[in-house]
Amino acid sequence: MQIIEVVEKKDLKKFVEFPYELYRDHPIWVPPLKIMANREFDREKNGFFEHADAVFFMVTDGDRVLGRIAAFLNLNYMKYYNDKVGFFGSFESVDDQEVARLLVNSACDWLKEKGMRFIRGPYNFTSQSTGCLIEGFDQAQICLSPYNYPYYDSLLQGTGLEKIRDLNAYYGDSLEQYKFPDRFTRYADRLMERYGVTVRTVRTQRLREDVLDIIRVGNQASSGNWGFVPVDEAEVDELVRSFEPVMDPDAVFLMYKEGEPIGYAIALPDINRIIKKLNGRLLPFGIFRLKFGVKKLREYRLFGLGLVPKYQSKALDTLLYYSIFKSLIKKQARLEANWVLESNHKMNHALIKLQMRLTKRYRLYQKPLA
């Protein structure tokens, strides 16, 4: 076995394609579209690399790839926190502790050379695809969420990494059980009148403007969350490009107060239900299956919900939940709320109160680089 830094295009091709071999014919894992997988690691096409420095490593045995990892600096994180934390992600490995050790040690050595004090991960280069799955291996892999083999937790801890946070995922089998009584509708109307707020769906013809509003609200709403990194408004075009094909305009809501955005809620159709059948190929017919299949989907992911701090703890989040649930009930949809920090007690409590059940847990790890 040997560890190599991925520099040449032929090695990057192996790096990108390794998971397709590792999870071949797996009943749960969803092969990402290869056009998107290639874009994720393309330093010229993925806007993330405009504020990041990264290196990729592979462990090989002859021509066979046994594992891969990315190590990177997030310059936005370092600027926001003034903290020397480096990151790893895109970790995939056969069930071999020595392979995992070679990968993580290489990532640690590179980050130490860059002056980092800690390594943390796994974080991937796609939005919210974060953590190592440690519970819920029999559950469907919903869009923009990671999946891995059960042995990954043992491999990572075997390299000296330790848990720093867990992330929860909740599932609602049938939203029809959440039919709101008339008094709740009256309560929602009174809330809107009391605080002088309005709620509307996203405008497809002015999507860029609305995504900018969501970014601005999100950066304020999440500023107190552990690990938060503000989204750069320069990334809006990349977000619109990835958001538009999978968006259901009836499931994206924005809240305004006197014309200023103060809240949002986003539920996305689970396009993994379609992508899994494409086996990574968008052409020649996959693009049509994706385009026309989205409207038929009944599985959704609660992708994000936020209020600017000034309006938190005023029950206005209830209006956003109400808007999302009311829309999805009409579609007879089911919903997964993913990436909920275990320390976010308000969010966890709200989802439990809505009778959603905890179905998955993801783990983030960290260790010092002294």
What this model shows, in words?
The chain has 370 residues and is an alpha+beta fold. It folds into 2 domains: 166 residues, Gcn5-related N-acetyltransferase (GNAT) (Aminopeptidase), CATH 3.40.630.30; 157 residues, Gcn5-related N-acetyltransferase (GNAT) (Aminopeptidase, 3-Layer(aba) Sandwich), CATH 3.40.630.30. The chain is 34% helix and 28% strand. The two termini are 27 Å apart.
Tally of separate helices = 12
Largest sheet: 13 strands, mixed
| Multimeric organization | single chain
CATH topology tier name of the largest domain: Aminopeptidase
Q: CATH superfamily assignment of the largest domain?
A: Gcn5-related N-acetyltransferase (GNAT)
The CATH architecture of the largest domain would be 3-Layer(aba) Sandwich
Percent helix among the residues? 25-40%
**What's the number of domains?**
2
What share of residues are in beta strands? 25-35%
pLDDT below 50 for ≥5 consecutive residues: which ranges? none
DSSP strand tally: 13
From the N-terminal CA to the C-terminal CA, the straight-line distance is 27 Å
- Principal-axis shape: globular
Radius of gyration: 21 Å
Give the mean pLDDT: 88
Short structural summary:
This protein is α+β, with helices and mostly antiparallel strands and 370 residues long.
What are the SSEs and their pairings?
Elements: E1 2-5, H1 9-22, H2 34-40, E2 52-61, E3 64-74, H3 75-81, E4 85-93, H4 97-113, E5 118-121, E6 132-135, H5 152-157, E7 162-172, H6 182-195, E8 197-201, H7 207-221, H8 236-243, E9 252-257, E10 260-269, H9 272-275, H10 286-293, E11 299-307, H11 316-330, E12 334-341, H12 345-353, E13 357-368
Helix pairs in contact: 7-8
